Amino acid sequence: MRSLITSFLDKLLDLLKMEVVQLVKEYKLDDQNIKIDPVSETAVTVSFGDEINLTIHQQVQALSSYLEKNPFQGFVEAVPAFTSVTVFYEPLKIQGMFQRPSELVCSTMADIVADLKVEKLEKGREVVIPVCYGGEFGPDLEYVSSYTNLSKEEVIHIHSSEQYLVYMIGFAPGFPYLGGLPDCLFTPRRAKPRMKIPAGSVGIGGAQTGVYPISTPGGWQLIGQTPLQLFLPNQDPPSFLQAGDIIRFQPISEKEFGLLREEER
């Protein structure tokens, strides 16, 4: 009897080991930059590379769009990020004769990605965001100026002369992650994050720039503030900005800020 129990436990241990191995197994395609990884019992992540650029963004959007339009059995949702898409599913709704749900989903993703047609995305909506730079609205503008060896006027001019693509919305409700910040403005995040950042604050964090749509803790260097309300929970969609939008910042005076703020109320 003891030997039977021991044998059963050994087999159970082997199965558990196989499950662990399966969980960390990495699926690769012909394109060595694309990887498919199980990240839990209910999700897998498809990564298209490590670099944030328009080509990878188009791949991310193409896969997300395909899955939303052509969901497989057990599909829950696809969550796009800068360079990847995490696909959530219900394991109990996925059936296979000899494969685990995670293995089946990874295999399905590999087939989809291999045949995925990545079309050039249509030009997104252009949005102009008014920003009052510096002073009480941008308390870190002076630090950014010092770190980049640019005058405050140069920082404002460069930051407001570029167009930025909204890669995704995340971290905080309505928070847009933007691509396109010029290298000369790259500035590290604050060593000690602020406990509360005013809604509408425009900041720089490393190689990115963005706008805090709601009041929240954060560690980005604040260079200005917009009077626009970018997140309204009672609207559909609640976020004013969406992935694919093209953003341009327009400098305004404190007086203009006050007038626009009144209009927003």
Automatic annotation (TrEMBL):
NCBIfam families: 5-oxoprolinase subunit PxpB
Domain of life: Bacteria
Source species of the chain: Halalkalibacter akibai (strain ATCC 43226 / DSM 21942 / CIP 109018 / JCM 9157 / 1139) (Bacillus akibai)
Domain Carboxyltransferase: 34-241
Spans traversing the lipid bilayer: none
SMART domains xrefs: AHS1
InterPro entries: CT_C_D (IPR003833), Cyclophilin-like_dom_sf (IPR029000), PxpB (IPR010016)
Gene3D superfamilies linked: 3.30.1360.40, Cyclophilin-like (2.40.100.10)
Name of the molecule in the record: Allophanate hydrolase 2 subunit 1
Pfam family, one: CT_C_D
GO molecular function: ATP binding; hydrolase activity
